[in-house]
Amino acid sequence: xxxxxxxxxxxxxxxxxxxxxxxxxxxxxxxxxxxxxxxxxxxxxxxxxxxxxxxxxxxxxxxxxxxxxxxxxxxxxxxxxxxxxxxxxxxxxxxxxxxxxxxxxxxxxxxxxxxxxxxxxxxxxxxxxxxxxxxxxxxxxxxxxxxxxxxxxxxxxxxxxxxxxxxxxxxxxxxxxxxxxxxxxxxxxxxxxxxxxxxxxxxxx
Length: 205
Ligand code: C5P
Hints:
Elements: E1 4-8, H1 15-26, E2 29-32, H2 34-45, H3 50-55, H4 59-62, H5 70-79, H6 83-97, E3 103-107, H7 110-114, E4 120-125, H8 128-141, H9 148-164, E5 177-180, H10 186-204
Parallel strand pairs: 1-3, 1-4, 2-3, 4-5
Bound molecules: cytidine-5'-monophosphate.
Cytidine-5'-monophosphate binds near residues 33, 38 and 108.
């Protein structure tokens, strides 16, 4: 069975948590596509040209432990604006989406560019302040010494770059279900996502 769930949205909106929960609930494979761009960004910081980094990306690049730092977040969003980087990563994502047994992909352009035919499309969002607070908590928990105001600035800068780039800008697909997690506990947002998937899956099977 092929069944694709596309989950898009800005940084720290809760996409990853929701995507993992949906994948686990239905036994689908999960791909955090942000990791692909983070891995390219990391390799660029290490000195590899962006197009080569994207074209030769290996599994070991996306399982590195140092992909969640603010420096890599920024590098990822810069390389993500390059059409040659995006095009090198399309096929891998599309093949993942079509794998037998169902797949959940989360990112910025899954419902609009990578899988416009996805059975379920969700766009998860929240205010920049709420997202920055969540990201700041994650970073401080992981031992990074960062100011919340700086995280907010970084989040806004990344939103702006991701939404205004020419190639595959961040935006909801016309037929996406919007999920605003600003005032919604993560369990409720996850339940809503699971219900959307269950409904469409029930119609299909
Ligand atoms: O989701 P995450 O914050 O890990 O993504 C890091 C960066 O990768 C984003 O800011 C965005 O620029 C880029 N990205 C993208 N398209 C995707 C996933 C991530 O452009 N599908």
